[in-house]
Design brief:
Strand 6, helix 3 and strand 7 form a beta-alpha-beta unit. Helix 1 crosses helix 10, helix 2 crosses helix 3 and helix 5 packs across helix 6. The chain is of the alpha/beta class and 271 residues long. Strands 1, 2, 3, 4, 5, 6, 7, 8 and 9 form a 9-stranded mixed sheet that branches. The model has no long low-confidence stretch (mean pLDDT 95). It is globular and about 55 Å long. The longest helix is centred in the last third of the chain and has 19 residues.
Length: 271
C-alpha cells in the first residue's frame, strides 16, 4: 500500500496506475475516506484516466498526530506530495466537500500543476457562526466515549451521505468501528477555515461545479457563488434527488457530468 511521508503526516493513497495517462486526483469529504470515490475511479479508469485518491489527515489510513493542528493549506500540500510521490507533474484535481476546500487551495498554491478542477458538493466560504456551534457540539460528542456512537452515526448519515439506508450503511459501520478521537484536529481545521471568496478570480483553470439537489450543507446559493466566482466554470450542475454525497449515492449522473466536462476539456486542448 503506497504512502508518502510529509513533515507532519504519513499520507495513504491509491493509484490506479497507467503512467503517461492524464491523471485525476480526488480528495474526499469529512468523516469519509478515499473509498467514497470507488464509483468515479471505476468510471474514470474505463475512460482511460489514471486516478489517484488519498486519505486526508484524521481520516482513513493516513497517520497524523490527532492533536496537531493543521489547515486546508497543509492538506493541499499533502495532495501535491501525493502527486510528487506518484510522479505526476500536472493533474485534474477534484474534491468533495472538504476535499473541495483542499482542491481550491491546491489551485492557488500551485496553479501550474492543476489542469482543471472538479468540485463536488462544496463551497468557498468560511463556516458561519451558527454552523460553528453545531460542529463543536458534534465533535465534542464524537470524541466522548459516553455518547453512543451508533446514535451519532444514525443522526449524521442522512444529512452527510443522503440517499438510502443502504447507501449510508457502509459509512455508519466505519464510524462505529473507527477511532473516535482521530478527527479532533480535522474538526478544528473545518471550523476555522477561512473564506476564499475573494480569491476565486485568481483560479482561472477550467472548473466543473456539481451539487446534489437536496444538499443542505453546500446550498444552492453557496454553489452558485462558487461557480460564478471561478472564471473557468460554467453554471453549476444539479443532481436531481441527491444529497451531500451525490457522487456516492447518485454516481451515474455525477459520472456523466464529469465525463462530459473531461471530454470538453480534452477537445479544447486537442491540436
Amino acid at each position: 500500500m503506497p504512502y508518502v511521508n510529509t513533515d507532519e503526516a504519513r499520507v495513504f493513497y491509491t493509484d490506479s496506475g497507467g503512467r503517461g495517462q492524464r491523471t485525476v486526483v480526488l480528495a474526499h469529504g469529512f468523516f469519509m475516506d478515499l473509498s467514497m470515490f470507488a464509483p468515479q475511479v471505476e468510471y474514470l479508469e474505463a475512460q482511460g484516466f489514471r486516478v489517484l485518491c488519498w486519505d486526508a489527515r484524521g481520516h482513513g489510513a493516513t497517520v497524523a498526530e490527532p492533536d496537531r493542528r493543521f489547515t486546508y493549506w497543509d492538506s493541499a500540500r499533502d495532495l501535491l506530495a501525493v502527486m510528487d510521490a506518484a510522479g505526476v507533474d500536472r493533474a485534474i484535481v477534484g474534491g468533495m466537500s472538504q476535499g473541495g476546500y483542499t482542491a481550491l487551495r491546491a489551485a492557488l498554491l500551485a496553479p501550474e500543476r492543476v489542469e482543471a478542477l472538479i468540485l463536488l458538493d462544496t463551497e468557498a466560504g468560511s463556516s458561519p457562526p451558527e454552523q460553528i456551534g453545531e460542529y463543536r457540539q458534534l465533535f465534542d460528542a464524537w470524541a466522548n466515549p459516553e455518547v453512543p456512537i451508533a446514535t451519532l452515526a444514525e443522526g449524521l448519515a442522512p444529512g452527510l451521505i443522503g440517499g438510502t439506508a443502504l447507501d449510508q450503511a457502509p459509512w455508519r459501520a466505519k464510524w462505529i468501528a473507527g477511532d473516535r478521537g482521530a478527527v479532533r484536529s480535522a474538526g478544528e481545521c473545518l471550523i476555522e477555515r477561512e473564506s476564499l471568496l475573494d480569491r476565486l478570480a485568481e483560479i482561472d483553470c477550467p472548473a466543473l461545479v456539481v451539487r446534489g439537489e437536496f444538499d443542505e450543507s453546500s446550498t444552492a446559493d453557496k454553489t452558485e457563488i462558487l461557480a460564478e466566482g471561478l472564471p473557468g466554470a460554467g453554471p453549476a450542475v444539479t443532481i436531481e434527488g441527491a444529497g451531500h454525497a451525490a457522487n456516492w449515492t447518485a454516481p451515474e449522473p455525477v459520472n456523466a457530468a464529469i465525463g462530459g466536462f473531461l471530454a470538453r476539456l480534452t477537445s479544447s486542448v486537442a491540436p
